[in-house]
Amino acid sequence: MAVELKNLTKRSENYSQWYNELVVKSDLAEQSAVRGCMVIKPYGYAIWEKMQRQLDDMFKETGHVNAYFPLLIPKSFLSREAEHVEGFAKECAVVTHYRLKNDPNGGGVVVDPEAKLEEELIIRPTSETIIWNTYKNWINSYRDLPILVNQWANVFRWEMRTRLFLRTAEFLWQEGHTAHATREEAEAEAVKMLNVYGDFAEKYMAVPVIKGVKSANERFAGALNTYTIEAMMQDGKALQSGTSHFLGQNFAKAFNVQFVNKDNQLEYVWATSWGVSTRLMGALIMTHSDDNGLVLPPHLAPIQVVIVPIYKSQEQLHQIDEKVAGIVACLKDLGISVKYDNADNKRPGFKFADYEVKGVPVRLVMGGRDLENNTIEVMRRDTLEKETRTCDGIGQYVKDLLEDIQTNIYQKALAYRNARITTADTYDEFKEKIEEGGFILAHWDGTTETELRIKEETKATIRCIPFDSFVPGDKEPGKCMVTGKPSERRVIFARSY
């Protein structure tokens, strides 16, 4: 077992504890001095940067541009869209004063009561209200549409139960906010961006996802429809990994955003919003990692290849340095991120353990015998398999190996997920299967009352009404497993994070 990980809890013993320990031991993040907030450490942030960079490119390929809007939102803005404010009211942090002063009684620093704000400000839980108040100044005619804007930002929601990356009070995300002249265009935009998220999850994160639409009870506050990608973690729980919302004209009406259409008539604008957050880091960790540490997909790994020398003298190290320099140059020319760790601060065994827990996809090791034989040891992180290869052509071999690892971890996650998609026809059968975890396809009568009853009694929620079929007949009508009333089709239930 890796030296650094001898105290890591096994997944089979306590999955939640394994996750919490792994986030810290792999140097991704740690708790901060602020309740519910985390410090994302350099290695963790490097992964987020790669996610951000790739997603940003994908957004721009679909015509979107970046902008930035204020962190603070006037409280009156939230009250303009009733469903929206109700959905976020319990999570809002409120700024009431703008100045501190020294306590004349010696109690340290206190809020200056004379510095009370005329209108309280909300630290943004999401930005629909401030953005639509802004769009009112940008939109007059159909010629001003569409507006395709994305924002990279932080948001704050006063969460009671927090866990690093999965649910924190402050988190990083992107939020797209678009304005359109027609309902059809806005609905198409919402689905298009969901597909962008799905492509990113599968092609870069190597995380298989199910695309679908949320039930009315699970929609984003203020949306007419919420589309989602749902991933399955190794403990059988679901993780909502990205959402896209068709907002209709709700926010346009709340902020009186109208435009003159081609027939010279006033009409309210149609809207979407969509976002993913640092919760994707949690998905990445829980989908692929093992009892030895992180397993990172090569497409998002900050370090794709690490090279470690084993030497008996400084002269031998110098010879290995010269040999490895050519390999490093070759790998970099092929677009591979590589680190040569010849620092004399840890024994090779400790370095192996460190890079293993950090999930570096490929490790190369060169010792004295390798130097003589023109060979190098290659280990792949996903399977921990080792082999000795000639240095001739090693660059292309490693490049191909990285793609093989990317494919392998996706296929492994896909096979696991598909094996844990089952059906239930009766409520008793459902209650038994939900204890085993996984996605359960079952009939539901479409009512919020039944949905809430299932959630209260089993802690399972409707993850989505899937776009695609997953078992024969899942789109055929049937009877609700709880009430026996007619059901249009099966929906996906699971316990979730």
UniProtKB/TrEMBL annotation:
Reactions it catalyzes: tRNA(Pro) + L-proline + ATP = L-prolyl-tRNA(Pro) + AMP + diphosphate
The EC number(s) this enzyme carries: 6.1.1.15
SUPFAM superfamilies (UniProt xref): C-terminal domain of ProRS (SSF64586), Class II aaRS ABD-related (SSF52954), Class II aaRS and biotin synthetases (SSF55681)
Keywords associated with the record: Aminoacyl-tRNA synthetase, ATP-binding, Cytoplasm, Ligase, Nucleotide-binding, Protein biosynthesis
Domain Aminoacyl-transfer RNA synthetases class-II family profile span(s) in chain numbering: 4-297
Keyword Transmembrane attached: no
CDD domains: ProRS_anticodon_zinc (cd00862), ProRS_core_arch_euk (cd00778)
Pfam families for the chain: HGTP_anticodon, ProRS-C_1, tRNA-synt_2b
GO biological process, one term: prolyl-tRNA aminoacylation
GO molecular function: ATP binding; proline-tRNA ligase activity
Signal peptide residue numbers: none
InterPro entries assigned: aa-tRNA-synt_IIb, aa-tRNA-synth_II, aa-tRNA-synth_II/BPL/LPL, Anticodon-bd, Anticodon-bd_dom_sf, Pro-tRNA-ligase_IIa_arc-type, Pro-tRNA_ligase_II_C, Pro-tRNA_synth_II
Chief location: cytoplasm
Keyword Methyltransferase: no
Localization in the cell: Cytoplasm
GO terms for cellular component: aminoacyl-tRNA synthetase multienzyme complex; cytoplasm
Residues forming coiled coils: none
Domain of life: Bacteria
Similarity-based family: Belongs to the class-II aminoacyl-tRNA synthetase family. ProS type 3 subfamily.
Purpose of the protein: Catalyzes the attachment of proline to tRNA(Pro) in a two-step reaction: proline is first activated by ATP to form Pro-AMP and then transferred to the acceptor end of tRNA(Pro).
Domain notes for this protein: Consists of three domains: the N-terminal catalytic domain, the anticodon-binding domain and the C-terminal extension.
Subunit organization: Homodimer.
Name this polypeptide is given: Proline--tRNA ligase
Organism listed in the record: Candidatus Bacteroides avicola
Gene for this chain: proS
